[in-house]
Amino acid sequence: MSSPAWKHKKRSASKHQDEALETKKEDGRNPSKDMQNLVELNRAWEKALRSHAASPLAGANGAYRPIGGKTMGLLEALWAKPGRASTLDVGARIASGKIVRFWADPHFGHDNIRRLCHRDEFPDVEAMDAVVLERALEAAEDCDLLVCVGDLSLKNPVREHRRLSDLLGDRHVLLVGNHDVRGASAEQWVRAGALASLAFRVPSALLREWIEEDEPEMAELVEWRRLPKEVPIGCSHWPMPPRRFPGADWLCLHGHIHDRPAKPLRMNCSVEAIGYRPKTLRELVSAQLLADLALRTADPHRFDPEDDADADVDVDAEAGMGAGGNGNLAAGGRTGRGGRP
Ligand SMILES: [Fe+2]
Fold first, then answer.
1. CATH tag, 31-331
2. pLDDT at 114 over 60
């Protein structure tokens, strides 16, 4: 029997796609049914994000909505493009050996982010932008997809999005964040081909193989038999509390919290958390993450209590950058706490 597809080294994108399709046919899988499953998976994550947006969180300065009304309007406009996120089929790409990298929150052109999120190594915003772009382009060299999970730029996010598209073609994928809402309309973002969210599945056997190779001493912490055959992963700029996940077997990949550590069942790909170098899923998962997932599949409410402590993970709001165009409900819900600097 041949080795698993994900063990193969990098190959050309078109060859990979053809081979992935052939593999599906050989496996007796139905590509159109797989696509329908992927559409449903993405819709489940969209629904969860709507539910999250409608549920106020308790912050230090009062209750606030995690995603504001204007931002939700943009997300809805992007979700109205049926099946678009599904066509990327990120899980199949990863399982067939292609390299997909994730990053978030570059905040190009945002001088204050150096102070607010401790980017002390950069003397000025120009130096910051140059290094962040250079690291992204270096990481993109071996990439089939480079997925930015939001907050591309404070001032002109559509222009930055086009710049990356010019450099990387359709390998650049953007999931919008709260800062991307500013300065661009929903129509502009729809035309620019941005996404609101993304969901995919990854074989748990592949996750196990990664952990056994990368963290052999930790692999036995994971009750592998409790994991589903394929682990669903939802990507969105905002971290979602596990109680909002579509199911107890989901993981969340997000940005937004910058240099704060991710909570259980979540992976933070903000640039401060990844050394400004976009990471593969293999680099983002850990034995602890999967051990927690196995615990939650056995107890679907596991880790829910920690969500109360999660309420204040909105670094943008805490730093006065606007909590996604929404903000403190007690103050009328017009702005983030304190407004922009
Ligand atoms: Fe951000």
1. 3.60.21.10
2. yes
